[in-house]
């Protein structure tokens, strides 16, 4: 009986899940950067509904991106720069 | 429709188009230059050089195409080809060199930053910004570059591949490694502040 069971499921459920998690973690960047295809998104969203650790990794990765996008201060362009660019262009003509 | 095949623009037309299409990119371009060089004067020089080159090759620039990506590409090439050599900073930049780099424990003593942190929002926001900046600045320039291009400037992987002259697969793997490094740095900081991630 047991042998039949393992034939039908050549991999233990844990291994399957492990493989899913690896696949999903490889997609993380694509997802948060908006580069994933619609199938990838579907697969990803389905997985994180069921898997807490992948869900958390996704949250962390989003947070990281948000830290750079939202908190890194922009430097102010010196007022003189436009003028210097224009002047430099004219003088090298 | 304007005639794009008759290349020869008058100087006035050229200048007007140059100003209209390329100068609006000045702000992101300067910020990119600053994040690469970490020095305002160097950033200034690099941006000027970039615009000068762009002007010289402006006839090759197709109107309506991605001016921002084009300028970023010129700037990045200038940085690599000429700038890095004369820059004061030693260029310890190839990311292949730094595989084992992060395992060495940093020597910065964790000097009691934690206790007196004011949690009022504004100062915390500043603090976070500073911390992100300094973590980012310690990354090798190739890592810093992909993070800036992607997260700060919002370029797509395809645009990044063009700017950096590398395949998209390399963009992806570099971005992945870069984020891991940044995460590690910031987690270290978070822990020193008493957060457990």
Give a written overview of the molecule.
The complex is a heterodimer of chains A (93) and B (197). Chain A is mostly helical and 93 residues long. Chain A has one domain (2-91). Chain A has five helices and no strands. Chain A has helices spanning 2-8, 13-32, 38-50, 52-71, 80-91. In chain A, helix 2 crosses helix 3 (38-50) and helix 3 (38-50) crosses helix 4. The longest helix of chain A has 20 residues, at 13-32. Chain A starts with a helix and ends with a helix. Chain B has 197 residues and is mainly α. Chain B has two domains: 11-86, Rna Polymerase Sigma Factor, Chain: A, CATH 1.10.1740.10; 116-192, Arc Repressor Mutant, subunit A, CATH 1.10.10. Chain B has eight helices and no strands. In chain B, helix 2 packs across helix 3 (40-56), helix 2 (26-37) packs parallel to helix 4 and helix 7 crosses helix 8. At the A-B interface, helix 4 and helix 5 of A face helix 2, helix 3, helix 5, helix 6 and helix 8 of B.
CATH homologous superfamily heading of the largest domain in chain B: Winged helix-like DNA-binding domain superfamily/Winged helix DNA-binding domain
Q: Gyration radius of chain B, to the nearest Å?
A: 20 Å
Biggest beta sheet summary of chain B: none
> What is the CATH T-level topology of the largest domain in chain B?
Arc Repressor Mutant, subunit A
**Percent range of helical residues of chain A:** over 70%
Helix run count of chain B = 8
- Report the C-alpha radius of gyration of chain A, rounded: 25 Å
Shape assignment of chain A = elongated
Domain count of chain B: 2
Distance between the termini of chain B: 57 Å
For the secondary structure, the number of strands of chain B is: 0
Report low-confidence residues of chain A grouped into runs of 5 or more: none
Strand content of chain A: under 5%
Q: Name the CATH architecture of the largest domain in chain B.
A: Orthogonal Bundle
